[in-house]
């Protein structure tokens, strides 16, 4: 048998809008890559794929799937890794349950998600599903730190064609509200482990009666790791939320809650649940038992709750009564009555706050009108970024994308750094007592006295990733000469430990004068002042701010984070090229299904593809890949220069048209280049044919729009139907094959 070589590039199979886009774009990539002998393989990290891979024993041989995420997780530790990673769903419980239902209906005999596991078997199923829940993919693949910025061409284009910005007025009532203490920020303790302290630690809960329960055992902690612990008081949180509901009413604004229930999959759904309880407090007081009997878990949201009590008129009437007393809520979809509190994963802070700020501080109210909002962000660790942005724009008016400079990001992310790696070590306290970290040498590293319901968490940041991050920051500063700010707060326990790493490295390299260290609030203001003046800034941040800022600044500067270049230099030498900095845009799927228009912008994929090919050229000495990569960059430029990005409205060119244009510009650039004559000859006829048949192709693409599209599933669409919908031009298909 002929030996099959392993693919040089791996492209991920994901969910929702980006996956629909792949059905059109991947065949094009493969066609072009094959001309240079490059194979592009796929790995399935979709939610459905991960569910299927988790329960092989329930499935037929034909239904089974390999655990591609685990394989990729190993691969990114190899020097040769070259992965193009598209955004995937980080599922909340309602999404996970919906995906399981859909797969069951497709004939997959999967177990139900056990809401309240009792038997050992149920507990096992629940644990396996919980492994799939939330942000279960990105932390596994991110074996390197993050470098996110707008490519020069993209930034120039945004300045030339500035997007619409909402107006900010000085008397806007929009504000950010956070707890005044007893939150993660104020309760945080942190220490850097010495060699004597390294080893296998455990996390224990010690009850008032002195009994000890081990919550986590065999927790490996390395020397040099920064280890944090903190908790949010449930009582303080409830009081705060109740107060905020009243304050919103008094202000006459919309109540909104912004969390990251996907990435922070243990802590934030609990915080979300507290908000649902606070909102419906009188209903929980009066009908608590009935709600419990109906299987209501407030952490799953109002949507799930309403579904469970839909046949209970007394409870529905009580909910209606409360609604009348409450301030209006910020809506996810006012036409359909979907509120901020319906589903924990509908409002995700990194995307939701920037969208609100871009709109001039406005959110959608239940009446379908825009209104000012009280943005409730309970924890104080990062809320000041949004608070200060809002204050800045109230004082200075909206940012002008035509003249604004750019904030790039160098993010400390590798090896599950900081809070984003905390899910396995986050616990809701069962009772009053003490939570503590006990080291292998017997030392108690951290301990907190907690009350029942308090949300306690620990997390680590390893030494090698920290040093690598500081090095990346120095490289980026040297390459750009831009203002460079470490967004670290010396008064915060964790940040103070990081500063102990950062300062000596900068001093040893003699570059300390090129960097500032500022707390997030001050760094926000300094960066906004810099870009307002048309200059650039490098934000050197931890993992959470990496996430928040790479939506915030691009959304203000470019209108979207979809156009970001998002490179992860893997610590063992490989490259992970993430596409954009945003997510999987569920609303876009809805539009495609209703009217066969896909407004997803593949600019992130275009940029990642160019980088991946150039990386292949550099790392493997593959010159043809280099030629393909440079031509892909020219094609990307062509899309921008000729305004070929998808439009938002049905009847106008969409994602599929942009792929046609990308293919055409790519082929033209390859035909025109002189570095590789063979490739030039190969692509010349293709370029000519794509040009000659423009009218036919764009006509066929346009004709497909305007009616409902059937893709045979939401979480697991049928490959055939997806291909049929996403590749409606017979002429283009005949050329691409
Ligand atoms: N790297 C990853 O794997 C990431 C995954 N996610 C996941 O994505 C899902 C949705 O997250 P959410 O917070 O709603 O954020 P999204 O970024 O998916 O969506 C917010 C809005 O941003 C716009 N948008 C985002 N990407 C594009 C694009 N390529 N082209 C055009 N517009 C775009 C859309 O605006 P409009 O509707 O106005 O067109 C969209 O509705 C969640 O499951 C989340 O966990 C989120 C972030 C990163
Ligand atoms: O993994 C996730 O849940 C989201 C990741 C994200 O938002 C980001 O990396 O920007
Ligand atoms: Mg993000």
TrEMBL record:
Record text on cofactor binding: Binds 1 Mg(2+) or Mn(2+) ion per subunit.
Bias type Basic and acidic residues, positions: 145-160
Binding-site positions, NADP(+): 85-90, 138, 583-584, 588, 599-601, 648
PANTHER family xref list: ISOCITRATE DEHYDROGENASE (NADP(+)), ISOCITRATE DEHYDROGENASE [NADP]
Pfam families the record matches: IDH
Listed InterPro entries: Isocitrate_DH_NADP_mono (IPR004436)
Binding site for substrate: 135-142
Family: Belongs to the monomeric-type IDH family.
Record key words, sorted: Glyoxylate bypass, Magnesium, Metal-binding, NADP, Oxidoreductase, Tricarboxylic acid cycle
Protein name: Isocitrate dehydrogenase [NADP]
Catalytic activity: D-threo-isocitrate + NADP(+) = 2-oxoglutarate + CO2 + NADPH
Region of interest called Disordered, as start-end residue ranges on this chain: 145-183
Residues annotated to bind D-threo-isocitrate: 148, 546
Keyword Magnesium attributed: yes
GO molecular function term, any single one: isocitrate dehydrogenase (NADP+) activity
One example of a Gene Ontology biological process annotation: glyoxylate cycle
Signal peptide start and end residues: none
Cofactor (UniProt): Mg(2+); Mn(2+)
Keyword NADP tagged: yes
Residues the UniProt record annotates as site (Critical for catalysis): 260, 420
Binding site for Mg(2+): 350, 547, 551
Enzyme Commission designation: 1.1.1.42
């Amino acid at each position: 048998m002929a030996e099959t070589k392993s693919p040089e590039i791996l492209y991920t199979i994901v969910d929702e809008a980006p996956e629909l886009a792949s059905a059109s774009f991947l065949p094009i990539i493969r066609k072009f890559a094959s001309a240079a002998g490059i194979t592009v393989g796929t790995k399935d990290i979709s939610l459905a794929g991960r569910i299927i891979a988790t329960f092989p024993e329930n499935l037929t041989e034909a239904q089974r799937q390999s655990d591609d995420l685990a394989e990729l997780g190993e691969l990114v530790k190899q020097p040769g890794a070259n992965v193009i990673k598209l955004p995937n769903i980080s599922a909340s419980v309602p999404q996970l349950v919906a995906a399981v239902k859909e797969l069951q209906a497709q004939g997959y005999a999967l177990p139900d998600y056990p809401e309240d596991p009792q038997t050992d078997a149920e507990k096992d199923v629940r644990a396996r599903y919980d492994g799939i829940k939330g942000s279960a993919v990105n932390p596994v693949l991110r074996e390197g730190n993050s470098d996110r910025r707008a490519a020069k061409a993209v930034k120039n284009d945004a300045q030339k064609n500035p997007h619409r910005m909402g107006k900010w007025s000085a008397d806007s009532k929009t504000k950010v509200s956070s707890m005044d203490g007893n939150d993660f920020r104020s309760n945080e303790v942190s220490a850097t482990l010495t060699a004597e302290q390294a080893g296998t630690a455990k996390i224990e809960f010690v009850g008032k009666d002195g009994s000890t329960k081990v919550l986590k055992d065999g927790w490996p902690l390395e020397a040099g790791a920064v280890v944090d612990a903190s908790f949010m008081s449930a009582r303080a949180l409830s009081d705060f939320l109740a107060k905020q509901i009243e304050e919103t009413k008094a202000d006459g604004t919309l109540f909104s809650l912004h969390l990251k229930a996907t990435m922070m999959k243990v802590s934030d759904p609990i915080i979300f649940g507290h908000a649902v309880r606070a909102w419906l407090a009188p209903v929980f007081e009066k009908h608590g038992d009935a709600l419990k009997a109906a299987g209501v878990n407030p952490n799953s949201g109002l949507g799930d709750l309403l579904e469970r009590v839909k046949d209970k008129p007394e409870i529905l009437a009580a909910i209606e009564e409360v609604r009348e007393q409450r301030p209006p809520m910020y809506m996810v979809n006012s036409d359909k009555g979907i509120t901020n509190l319906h589903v924990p994963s509908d409002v995700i802070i990194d995307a939701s706050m920037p969208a609100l700020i871009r709109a001039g501080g406005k959110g959608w109210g239940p009446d379908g009108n825009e209104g000012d909002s009280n943005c409730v962000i309970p924890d104080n660790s990062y809320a000041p970024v949004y608070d200060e942005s809002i204050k800045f724009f109230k004082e200075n008016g909206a940012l002008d994308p035509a003249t604004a400079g750019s904030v790039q990001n160098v993010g400390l992310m590798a090896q599950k750094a900081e809070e984003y790696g905390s899910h396995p070590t986050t616990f809701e306290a069962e009772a009053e007592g003490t939570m503590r970290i006990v080291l292998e040498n017997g030392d108690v590293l951290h301990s907190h006295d907690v009350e029942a319901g308090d949300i306690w968490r620990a997390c680590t940041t390893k030494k090698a990733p920290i040093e690598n991050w500081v090095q990346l920051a120095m490289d980026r500063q040297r390459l750009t000469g831009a203002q460079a700010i470490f967004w670290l707060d010396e008064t915060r326990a964790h940040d103070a430990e990081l500063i102990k790493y950062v300062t000596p490295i900068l001093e040893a390299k003699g570059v300390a004068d090129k960097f500032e260290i500022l707390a997030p609030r001050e760094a926000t203001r300094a960066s906004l002042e810099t870009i307002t003046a048309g200059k650039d800034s490098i934000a050197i941040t931890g993992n959470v701010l990496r996430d928040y800022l790479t939506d915030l600044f691009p959304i203000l500067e470019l209108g979207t984070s979809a156009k970001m270049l998002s490179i992860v230099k893997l610590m063992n030498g490989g490259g992970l090229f993430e596409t954009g900095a945003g997510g999987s845009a569920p609303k876009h799927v809805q539009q495609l299904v209703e009217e066969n228009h896909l407004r997803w912008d593949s600019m992130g994929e275009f940029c990642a593809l160019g980088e991946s090919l150039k990386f292949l050229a550099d790392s493997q000495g593959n010159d043809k890949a280099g030629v393909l990569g440079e031509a892909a960059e020219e094609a990307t430029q062509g899309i921008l220069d000729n305004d070929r990005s998808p439009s938002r409205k049905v009847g106008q060119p969409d994602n599929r048209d942009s792929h046609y244009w990308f293919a055409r510009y790519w082929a033209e650039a390859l035909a025109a280049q002189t570095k590789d004559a063979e490739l030039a000859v190969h692509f010349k006829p293709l370029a000519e044919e794509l040009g000659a048949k423009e009218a036919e192709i764009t006509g066929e693409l346009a004709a497909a729009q305007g009616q409902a599209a059937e893709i045979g599933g939401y979480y697991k669409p049928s490959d055939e139907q997806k291909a049929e919908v996403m590749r409606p031009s017979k002429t283009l298909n005949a050329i691409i094959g």
